[in-house]
Structure formats: structure tokens, C-alpha cells
Amino acid sequence: MLIVRNIRITRILKNTWQVDIIMLITCSLVYFFHNEFVKYHIEIPAIVPTVMGTAIAFFIGFNNNQAYDRWWEARKIWGAIVNDSRSWARSVMSYVQQGNDGAAIAPVQQRLVYRHLAFLYALKAALRGADTNGYTRYLTDDEAEHIRSYTNTHNILLQWQSRDLKMLLANNSIDGFRFIQMDSLLTKFSDEMGMSERIKKTVFPTTYSYLTKVFIWIFVVAIAFVTSQTMGPWSIFISWLLSFIFVSTQINGMSLVDPFENNVAGIPLNQITRNIEIDLLQMLGEEDIPAPITPVNGEYVL
Amino acid sequence: MLIVRNIRITRILKNTWQVDIIMLITCSLVYFFHNEFVKYHIEIPAIVPTVMGTAIAFFIGFNNNQAYDRWWEARKIWGAIVNDSRSWARSVMSYVQQGNDGAAIAPVQQRLVYRHLAFLYALKAALRGADTNGYTRYLTDDEAEHIRSYTNTHNILLQWQSRDLKMLLANNSIDGFRFIQMDSLLTKFSDEMGMSERIKKTVFPTTYSYLTKVFIWIFVVAIAFVTSQTMGPWSIFISWLLSFIFVSTQINGMSLVDPFENNVAGIPLNQITRNIEIDLLQMLGEEDIPAPITPVNGEYVL
Amino acid sequence: MLIVRNIRITRILKNTWQVDIIMLITCSLVYFFHNEFVKYHIEIPAIVPTVMGTAIAFFIGFNNNQAYDRWWEARKIWGAIVNDSRSWARSVMSYVQQGNDGAAIAPVQQRLVYRHLAFLYALKAALRGADTNGYTRYLTDDEAEHIRSYTNTHNILLQWQSRDLKMLLANNSIDGFRFIQMDSLLTKFSDEMGMSERIKKTVFPTTYSYLTKVFIWIFVVAIAFVTSQTMGPWSIFISWLLSFIFVSTQINGMSLVDPFENNVAGIPLNQITRNIEIDLLQMLGEEDIPAPITPVNGEYVL
Amino acid sequence: MLIVRNIRITRILKNTWQVDIIMLITCSLVYFFHNEFVKYHIEIPAIVPTVMGTAIAFFIGFNNNQAYDRWWEARKIWGAIVNDSRSWARSVMSYVQQGNDGAAIAPVQQRLVYRHLAFLYALKAALRGADTNGYTRYLTDDEAEHIRSYTNTHNILLQWQSRDLKMLLANNSIDGFRFIQMDSLLTKFSDEMGMSERIKKTVFPTTYSYLTKVFIWIFVVAIAFVTSQTMGPWSIFISWLLSFIFVSTQINGMSLVDPFENNVAGIPLNQITRNIEIDLLQMLGEEDIPAPITPVNGEYVL
Amino acid sequence: MLIVRNIRITRILKNTWQVDIIMLITCSLVYFFHNEFVKYHIEIPAIVPTVMGTAIAFFIGFNNNQAYDRWWEARKIWGAIVNDSRSWARSVMSYVQQGNDGAAIAPVQQRLVYRHLAFLYALKAALRGADTNGYTRYLTDDEAEHIRSYTNTHNILLQWQSRDLKMLLANNSIDGFRFIQMDSLLTKFSDEMGMSERIKKTVFPTTYSYLTKVFIWIFVVAIAFVTSQTMGPWSIFISWLLSFIFVSTQINGMSLVDPFENNVAGIPLNQITRNIEIDLLQMLGEEDIPAPITPVNGEYVL
């Protein structure tokens, strides 16, 4: 996520320079083609690129709207994960009490909170598609060993939480009311996990973005033709400028459709996960708290 | 669901070649008609197709927006089915315990999870309108025999789950709190089933899509007339190009209004159902796990 | 609800022929007025109808969007009624058991399900404003007699369900947990009834649709003037064509704002209610099941 | 709320006549200024008002959309109040039973329902900012006396309901399950009260509506200049007509942003409250039922 | 939040004067550059700024829509905080009763309500980034001392409420049903806190607003060029006017994306918090009630 208000123009050009160059070449080719072969023979009326431009601006606008909605929905899901993680830790700290077996409760509380952190790191790794073993530091050696045989690790971790919760109830460490409340939190984590995966795995309808790209190219050619008729070589620059507006908006919108990617437009999962980690370790009363994630170049957080 | 970012232009032409040819013919007819009869007599001002084009771009944009919302709503419903299926299996595995009758719980757990898989396959078959007997492999022979007399099979399967749940409660295999929680999952499955059927059975207002098609044809004729006035035979190509933008966007949008169809734009029910199947069988500790659905041509999943 | 993809153009003309004729007359009057009095004196610049057309397309688009949302909300409410009706029957069949009074439970179950069907038919009749006595066939003679003294019949039927539920609890036919679950279903029916009535009774802001109509007429006159300047008598046809696009979209959108009307654009309450009736009677194990509603002319269902 | 489909044009002119006159004067001034000083010197290209008009149509469209959403949200809140009021009365009638003190339950039921009606009338009065003492007819003399010392009367009435509910529980007139259900209804009333107040007290961002007004005036001047160039004095009429489209749409949209005002566009709180009153008194079995609110001039209800 | 309907034009100019001046200078430079070097050589067709203007109006419209949604979501969250705070106080006053330890309940009630006020003031301070110690007046000296060692103060205050609630349950001051209800309120406060922080910390996608700004500058230059061709020096004024419409709408929209900032467009957190404070202190029966927040200059509240 970008955290600066004014981004350098170079960043935008860095994202679009390839398409910019191809567009300049295309505009030049259209200009020369028009100059050599078409001039004096046919004239494209201005209405053609006008109608095209209006329609394309529309379709890009709608695409961007839907892309933004996906991105904001992803952000909301992880906002809910933050809230529910705090509620989980608060419930673990406030409601778990010494049970029938007389065992100390501090290790139980630590295990339930640590395993939740492992769940978060495993989920983040699955969504980002990287760093897949970092979460084991919050598991016991046994658990870390055992979990290697599973692929869908974050799901198994939730199942273990569920199993422990049932044992706490049997042991009278929590009563029925607390059980319902904590069990519903596990269901929420399961739902939020599933919702994240839904956004991750559902490709934004390819035809939408692909057709828009095709239309923009058609528009580039049309506008280059029309401006060639009156502007001479300047038409190359002007056509590129108009196309740049469409292309950069389209690319910009599409950068939001995959909000869990590890790029500058994505949801800052590293930062969010770390903040939850800090909050939960503080609630456990731990000393050794990791530092918050710092922005890259003071420009964005991951 | 398409999973590639760049689709072949042939795919788009494959979807639109019929209408493309009819449009080219129409544009040609308009051109010749204009050339023979209209030229020098009347002139259509450019404003006519401009206003038409703007208005039609708008109406297509709104249609696409609503089509996308239907598609995304369908995807959310099946995302919720994924989450709730996992919660169902987790509840079955964690909460069902030996009851008063002293019977083993593993077969009970297997039956409840297997029957849920049968429910999913029956629901998928009903939504896709095909493959209607595949789900019986997750039923006992008795059940498979018995269910033949019903038409609304997925509804009956839910009713059987409800009946078993009541027996588990009577048998003390689950207590009242767990009963409420698992019963509410059955209600959720019932709701998600109903919501899928609502989208499946509610035709997107026909007048919307039909009128838009009529308007596009009016626009084709108007733009062909206007471009004929200045561009000669090239007007045929240019008019077709403009119409292509409208037609392909409209067709593309309409491909999303029936998200449960068994086509490349639909929600990948095969893949989602199989993934749930894999997750649930793993949670049961089964050995014989089916493979995930692989994309067709590396291009889309069904 | 229309169920065909391609509707006959005659249907659209049937909905708009009156306004079409008035528009043709208006365009003709403008043409002759322009020809006789205005020509050579003043010229309306093309920008006037262009700006008008863009603005009106916008306002129509927004109106249609809101009309569609109303329609889809109504459809969702009745989708929820389908789901909750099934849940009601499933609960009645699975949870009601022999109580302290030793009476048979089958008649009780039948009464609770029958009365729910009466509720649905009474609600449908109130929303459609017709067929108000059909629901009494699912009531006992006593109830049918007694209900005549009430105006808001569907509300009274819910109150009777509530009263019976309380008696079942007192009689130990259902326990506290089941009572809560079934009582919350009654609350849902009450909410869905209220939401249907809200849509039924809330007039879509009249000024919105009225102003749009006024604007379209202003546009017709303006475009007829402008095209008269260059096109001669053809301007009558062209102006009508442009206006037709606006008028038919507007009329089409407005046909969705009252989704409970008994017309081809409305939610098919007859079909939905009958489907629930079939499902619920099957769950009761009845023999004499009514047939589903068949489409009218194979074209739409009511 | 207007209840007629076709409103008299006079109503629209009544809402806009002041601005209409100012606009006609402005257009005339622009025309004369252009005629005397500008003509032959400079020419404003048509593109200027075209771009302005498109942009302004957009911004008005978005404003209207948000205004409509506010209005519909307000209507939904009061629809929920209707539903929950009926549920409250149904719960009071079905669940309250003779308690430990052996007192009759009819007066208790009447008090709980009457006080709810007082709450509704007090809330309506606060939202409408008028008629603040009508609600006391549903309070006992003691209560009516006591409540004078409070400002936020509707909040206090809810607190009294809460206090009574607690006494009913202590008295065994309702059991724990019923208490939870009825208490959650009180929370809903509190939420709906708060949501109504949120809409009432939150001013729609002034800059939005103000800027749009400023833009419309800029547009009026620009279009008057441009049409003056070709149309002579007719430009006054045409400019006013175009501006009328923008101004009346803007005024119309803004009439919805304050849905609780006591005007023709507002939510008909009088009608809704009276309907609840009728329903609830009927459920109590009262004889003396007030008549429904009748429309004013057959044109709108308040 | 602005509370006046007509804001002074000076306020708008105050927000935009810097950019206005830069724009006037830019337009002048373009005019002179065009006059000296470009005139008679090349002509930019009007279609270029037309298409640009339409596209930019679109993108600004979408941005504003999303900004408004953020602002309204923030307002809804704080509306929910108002409702839940009242429910909290109502629950504390109605449900807490003398427990096993025989201690007086008034101090307990006061502590629970006071600490909630401290929570609100701490949350407000964190969102506004100011006035961070005002909340301690609602804490005991011990608590105020103790809380200094924490950074995330509002989270700790919720944890203390949770701890006290558990003690009340153990002490039989509240029973299990009341515990669930009050505990769920604490979870709601935690969620609302998290949702506020999500909006506060999530930067609105910088590329959106930045690109829009870049596009507006491109548009300014283009429109200045085009108007220079026909209007002479007046093009400077006209270009600035057109740009002003875009720039002020864009700036206005962006003023809503950070709704918790301490500026005139923000949510009036001071006013809302104070109103809750007044309501809650009145419910406690206190004498010394602070006055409501008064608007600044009668123009806006903070």
C-alpha cells in the first residue's frame, strides 16, 4: 500500500513505459501510413474517436469501480481479522480459568494465542504465495513436525484450536457460554480465511480487462488517424497523451484486482499481521516484542 | 472461469463471429444504399450517432455492472458454502462424541460428512443441469435407492441431516449448545441452496438486454450512414469496428448473468466442489483423495 | 417475469405505441413549424441536444439502476421467504414431538404447515391486490370464519402461529432451544412481510420519473429542430428513433419499480408461492400435490 | 411522499420559479452583453459548454444517487421499525404470563404496548421537530409528569421499557429465553432510533451541493454566450431550458437528502406511525381505533 | 462537518487559491506559447479536450463516489458507537444488581460507564491524533497511573471492562444471559474501534487521486491550446474556469477520504463524543453535565 500522497511521476512511467513506447511507435506508424497512403483520399470523422472515447472511459470507469470494491472488500476482511484476533486474545486471557485437572492456565493461554499467530502467518503465506515456514516459530516442535504432512496448513491449525477448545470445556476451564462465544470466533476466522481465498482464487473476469485493452488500442489508432488529418507530426504526441490517460487508468485499476499480491498496491498483510502479533504478545505480557513493519523507501508498506 | 490474463483474440471472435458477419453485411448494405439513393439528398448530422453512442454506452455499462454483481453474488454464495462446509466437518469431527447407545462415532462422522458431499454434488448437478447421479457414491445403497423417488434431491438430503442431528441429540452424542450451532449450519446450507436457485431461476430482465441489442443495431445503421457521407467504402470497416466495441462488451456482460452455466465465464462449480471434497476427506483422515480439477487447455476451469 | 431471451418487437411496440405515435406527431409538428416559420431565421446549434441527450441518458441510467435494485431486493426477499418456509417445514417435521397431553403430532404438524401456506397466499393476495380468499382452503372452518373480522389477515395468521408455538412449548412438544429457533423463523416471516409491504407501499420518487419524462419531451423537440435544419422530412423519422431509445429505456426501467404488480415484469409470486406449496406438501407426505405454474404463452410467468 | 404518478407541472414550477426567473434574467443579461460588447470580437467554442455540461450532468447524477440512497436507507429504517413494533406487540401478547405476584397481565401488556406507541410518537416528533407533546396520551399521568424533566424523551422511554422487562423477569412473568428475545427488540429500537438521528443530524456534504449549484450557474452563462452567437434572442429561451434540466434535477435530488423533513418528498412518518398504532391497538383488542392518515389533496402523504 | 447550506465562495477559493493561481499562470503560458510559436502551424482538434474532459469527469465522479462511501461508512460506524454506548449504559443501569459480596452497586455502575467514556475519548484522541490525555478524567488515579505504560490505550480499557464483567458474573451481580448480552457489546466496541482504525490507517489508493491530478493538468493545457485558437486572451479565463470545475470537485471529493481528520469536512467526533457523554451522565443521574459542542462561527462543528 502506497502511503505517500504524491508519488513520483517516474513510478507511473515505470509501470507503463513498455506500453508507452509501443503506443508511441503505433502512433508514429499510423501517422506515416496516413501521410503516405491515406491523405486526401479518405477522412475519418471526429465522431468516431469521440464515441469510442466516451464508451471506453465508461467501461474503464466501471472496471475500476469493481476493482476498487474487490480491494476494499479484501481490506475489510483483514480489518475483521484484526478485530477478531484481539477478541480471541481477550477471551483467552479473561475467560480461561483453572480447570478440573488443576494444571496452570498460563501455558494454555500462551498456546491458544501462539497458535492463532501461527494461523495468521500461515494464512498470509498462502495468500502471498511465499515465506511458507515462518509460522512454525509459534508452534511446538511436535506440531511443527506434524503439520508438514498437510497442505492446507491454516485450516488444520483452526481444527486444532477447535479440538483444544472442546478439551477446555470438558475440563471445565471454560463454561458453556464462553465456549459458544469462542467457538463462534473460530467460525469467524474460518469464514475470513475462506473469504480471503475466494478473492485470491477468483480471477477478475478476464474478458473485461482484455476487451478494454483491445478497445484502447483501437482508440489509439483511430485518434492518431483523426489527429494526423490536421496536426501533422504533433499528432503522434497528442494521440499518445490521450491514450496514456486511458492506459494508465486501466493499469492502475487492474493493479487493485489482486489485493493480496506482494506489490505496492496490495493490502499490507506484512504490516497488519505484525501489528496483530505485537498487540497479542503485549496482551500475553511478553517482553520480546518485534518491531512494527517500516515502510519501504518511506513510500509504501507491504 | 477463465484463468489466463491474455485470452486469444480468436476466443472473442469465436463468440462474436456470427454477429460480426451480420454487422459487416449490414454496414455494406447501408453503404450501398446510401451511395445509390441517399447521397446528395439528405445528410444525417453527426450528433445523431453521437448522442446514440453515449446513451448506449451508458446502458451497456449499467447492464454490465448488474451482470457483474449477479456473478459476484453467486461467487460469494459458493464461497460461503466452502466456509460452512469446512465448519460442518470441523463440528462433526470435534463435537460428536460417543452417545448413550455406546456405538462407535467414526461411522457416524463419516456418514454426516459423506452425506454433505452428496448434498453438494446434487446441488451442483441441479444448478448445472447435468451429471445428476454422481452424488450417489456418497450415499449408502439404501439411501441411494430411497432418494430416487424424490425430485428435489438436495432438499431431501438436508432433511436427512436434520433428522440425524436430532437423533444425535436424543442419544447425547451432542449437547444442546452443539446442536444449535450445527443446526444453524444446516439452515445456512438451506439458505445458500435457496440463494443459488434464486439466481439460477430468475431471468435477468429480458427487456434490458433485448432493448440494448436493438439499440446497437440502430446505432450500427446510423453510424454507417454518417461515415458513408465522408469515408466511402472504408465506412463499412469503421462502422463495424465501432459496433464491435459495443457488441462485444454487451455479449461479454451478458455472459456473466447466468453464473451457474457450464461455460467458460461461469463460476467453477466443479473445481470448488472438488476442493471441498478434498478438504473434507482429509479432515476425515481418508487415504483415497481425488485430484483437484485441472484447467481445460490451461485456459479455464469449469 | 419474462422467461424468453428474445422478446418480440411487437411486445415493445405494444408497450410504447401510444407514446410512439404522439412522438411522431410531435416531430412532424416541429418539422412543419420549423419549415414554415423558423428556417433561415435562427439555427439551433447541435450542442444543445448533445448536452441534453448526455444528461438525460445519465438520469435515465441512474433511474434504471435504482429501479433494478428495487426489483432485485424484492426478489431477494421472496427468495428468503422460500428458504425460511422450507426451514419452517423442516423444523416442524423434525422437532415437534409428542407432548405431555399424549395427542398425535401429525395433525399438529399439518396445521402449522397449512397455516403457513395460508399466510403465504394471504400475503401474496395483499401484495398483488387480488384473489383475496384463496388462502382460506388451508385454514380450518373455524379459523376461516374467525379471520373475516380482520383486515390485516397475514399478520393475524402469524400471531396464531406464535400462539400455537407457545402452547407446544408449554406442552413439552418442543424444548426451549427449538422454541427459540422456530420463533426466530416467525420473526423472519414478519420481517419479510414488512419488507415486501415497504416496497409495495413506497412510491418511487415521482419527481424522478416525471422530470425524466418532461426532459425527454424537451429533447424530442430540440432534436427535431436541429435535424430539421439539414435533413428535411427525414428528420421526423430520425428524431423519433432517437427519442424511442430514451423513451423505451425509461418505460422499461419504470416497469421494474413496482415488482409486486401482476404484470410481465413483476416478480412471479404465483410461481414462487406454488413451488413452496409443492415442496411443503411433499414434506408433509401428501398425495394430492398441485401442478407447478406454467408460463403464459411460453413467454412469461406470473 | 408523493403518491401520484403524474404530478402537475405547476408543482415543479412552484419549486423552481425563483431560480427560473433569476436564470431567465441571467440569460437575458448575457445575451445583451454579448450583443453589445462581445459579438464579432471573440467566439466561445462549443466544446466549452459541452465539456461543462457532461461533467455537471455527471456530478448531479452522483449527488442524486447518494441522495436517493439516504432516502431509501431512512425508509428501510422505518420499515424495520414497523416490523419490530409488530414483533414487540406479538411478543408482549404471546409471552407475558401471570407472574409470582398473581397480578392480572392485561394491564401489563397494555402498558408495554402503549409506552411503545409513546416512544414512536416521541421519536417522530424529534425527527420532524414538531408536535412534541402528542405522545403523552399513551403514558400514565405519573409518567407524563415525570418525563417533562428530560430532553431526550424517546431514550428515557426505552429505558423504562428495559426496567419493566427486568421486573417481569424477576416476577417470572417471562422466562430467560423470552427475556433475551424481547431485550434484543429493545436494542433494535435503540439502534433504529440512533440510525434515524444519524441521518437527521448529518448534513449532506455542503460542498457537494454548493459546488454543483455554482457549476450550474457557470454553465448557464457559458451556454447563453455560445447560443447567443448563432440564435439571437432565442438563445435566452434555449439556455434557460437547458439550465432548467440541470437545476430541477439538482433541486429534486436535494429534496431527498433530508428524508425526515415534514415536506412532500419526505418519508411519510405520520402515515407509518399511525399504521403501527392501528395494528398494535387491534392486537390489544381495543375498540377505539384511529383512522389511517389520508393523503393531502389526494397528492401526497406526510 | 459543515452545517450551513450555503457556504461562502471565499471558503472554496481559500481551499483552491494556490492551485487557481498556478492554473491561471499555466493557461497564460500556454496562451503566449501558442500565440508566439504555434499559431498558423498546427491546430489541435476540439475532439482532444472533449474526450479528455469526458473521461476525466468520469474518473473524478468515481473517485468522489468512493470518497463519499468512505465518509458515510465512517459516519455509520460512529452512529453505531452512539447506539451501542447507550445500550451499554442501559444494560449497566438495568441489569447490574447487588452481588454476593453485598457491595453497593452505584459505584460499580459509575465505574463501568465512566470507563466507557474514557474509552471513547481515548479512541477519539487516537483517531484525531491529538488531545491524548483528556480521557484520564474518567479513570481512577490508579488506572490513570497504570495506563501510562501502554501505547494502545483504548484497547487496554476494553480489556479492563472485560475483566470487570467477568468479576460481576463471578459475584452474581449479573447472570449468564446478561453477561452474554453485555459481553457482545464489548465485542461490538472492539469491532467499531477496529473499523475506525481501518479507515484511518488505509490510505485511499494514491495512484487514483494522483493520476486524476495529472490528467487535470494535461486537460488544462489542452483546453488552453484549443481555446487559444479562437478566443484570444479570453482563453486564459475560460480555460481556468473549466479547470476550476474539475479541480474543485476533485479537491472536494478528496477532502472526504480521511473522515477522521480534525477539519471542516471530517466527521464531528468532538460533537458526537460529547453527546454520548451527556446522555450517559444523565442516565447515571449526575448533576454536573457538560454543555454540547457549539459550532465554530456557526459554520461547522468538529
Verbal overview:
Five copies of one chain form a homopentamer. The first copy, chain A, is an all-alpha fold. Chain A has one domain (9-284). The first copy, chain A, contains nine helices and no strands. Chain A has helices spanning 9-38, 47-95, 106-128, 141-147, 153-170, 176-201, 206-231, 234-254, 269-284. In chain A, helix 1 crosses helix 7 (206-231) and helix 2 (47-95) packs antiparallel against helix 3 (106-128). The longest helix of chain A is centred in the N-terminal third of the chain and has 49 residues, at 47-95. Chain A is elongated and about 95 Å long. The mean pLDDT of chain A is 85. Chains in contact: A-B, A-E, B-C, C-D, D-E. The interface between D and E is large, with 54 and 59 residues.
Estimate percent helicity of chain A: over 70%
Q: How many distinct helices of chain A? A: 9
Shape of chain A: elongated
- Biggest interchain interface, per-side counts: D-E, 54 and 59 residues
Series of secondary-structure elements of chain A, N-terminal to C-terminal: HHHHHHHHH
Give a quick account of the main beta sheet of chain A: strands, pairing sense, barrel closure.
Answer: none
Strand content of chain A: under 5%
Please state the oligomeric state of the protein chains shown.
Answer: homopentamer
Q: Roughly how many Å is the radius of gyration of chain A?
A: 27 Å
DSSP strand tally of chain A = 0
Distance between the termini of chain A: 6 Å
Backbone structural class of chain A: mainly alpha
